[in-house]
Design brief:
Strand content: 15-25%
Strand order of the largest sheet: 2-1-3-4
Number of domains: 2
Oligomer: single chain
Largest sheet: 4 strands, parallel
Number of helices: 9
Number of strands: 8
CATH architecture of the largest domain: 3-Layer(aba) Sandwich
Radius of gyration: 23 Å
Length: 271
């Protein structure tokens, strides 16, 4: 069974999509087809969307599911004429918040993702930092990092650093372990002075073999034997030096990042 899910917003739609996917992930037996409609802010656009939803309902004989964040009440009422299960993520909460806070909402479009405050620039600065210090390039900047992720190549260090920057505003660097690093009894020299910021990432060798094979098939780098060797030595190094580390094999980037933030006692840099 497949259900069509519409994500409708007068801005980027990122908030609505995040909520929708989080909720619908609980229904594993159902397949969902997501249709995103960001920057929907005119009567003509909403009318066209209502027509589209109606056509899908007529075809499938199943109501599409709509998650919306439209600040304009008139457009929202127009959208609700479509034959769908509607979740208005603004109206569900704004009325009660208005009563509690004693003031009306502004109705301003795109307030969460505005660039008019420091949040946007904090994100950009953190992402720029992750890119500038990626793959062991940031030795002279490590003192500015909030965390330094260490692990074998393709264990998930770079995407986790970027996620920490984008979603938490944290400055994250990564340092890849090479073969000569496994022969030492200490941390590699460039990161030795920053042990309190270091978190290790590990991964099951078979999964690492799959990932590396996609990049360099048939190479020694991608061989299962090499993957087993590197993961084993990396974990030995982490345990010997008391470095906190996380297994990324079946964990999402969101889960990895949340574990690191919690373990390090860090806070999101923006509200």
């Amino acid at each position: 069974m497949e259900r069509t899910v519409f994500i409708v917003s007068d801005h980027t739609g990122l908030t609505a999509e995040s909520v929708a996917r989080s909720l619908l992930a609980q229904f594993e037996a159902v397949q969902f087809r997501y249709v995103t409609r960001p920057f929907t802010n005119t009567e003509e656009e909403v009318y066209s969307l209502v027509y589209e939803i109606n056509a899908i309902y007529e075809r499938d004989r199943l109501r599409p599911i709509v998650f919306s964040t439209l600040a304009n009440p008139a457009l929202n009422d127009q959208l609700k004429t479509a034959p769908a299960l509607h979740f208005d993520l603004f109206r569900s909460y704004l009325g009660e918040l208005e009563r509690e806070l004693g003031q009306p909402p502004t109705g301003r479009v795109g307030r969460l993702h505005s660039i008019s405050d420091n949040t946007y620039f904090t994100r950009i600065d953190a992402v720029d930092f992750a890119l500038a210090t990626d793959d062991g390039l940031g030795e002279r900047y490590y003192q500015m990092a909030d965390v330094i992720l260490v692990g074998v190549s393709r264990a998930g260090k770079t995407p986790t650093c970027l996620f920490l920057g984008m979603q938490y505003g944290l400055r994250a660097s990564n340092y890849p372990l090479a073969e000569d690093d496994f022969e030492r009894e200490t941390l590699p020299e460039p990161i030795k002075a920053h042990k309190d910021k270091i978190f290790g990432l590990t991964i099951h060798p078979a999964r690492l073999h799959q990932i590396r094979t996609q990049r360099k098939p048939g190479s020694r780098y991608a061989s299962l034997e090499q993957c087993e060797y590197e993961v084993r030595r990396a974990e030995q190094l982490f345990r010997r030096l008391g470095v906190r580390y996380f297994d990324t094999t079946s964990a999402s980037i969101e889960e990895i990042a949340a574990n690191i933030v919690q373990s390090a006692g860090l806070q999101r840099r923006f509200a």
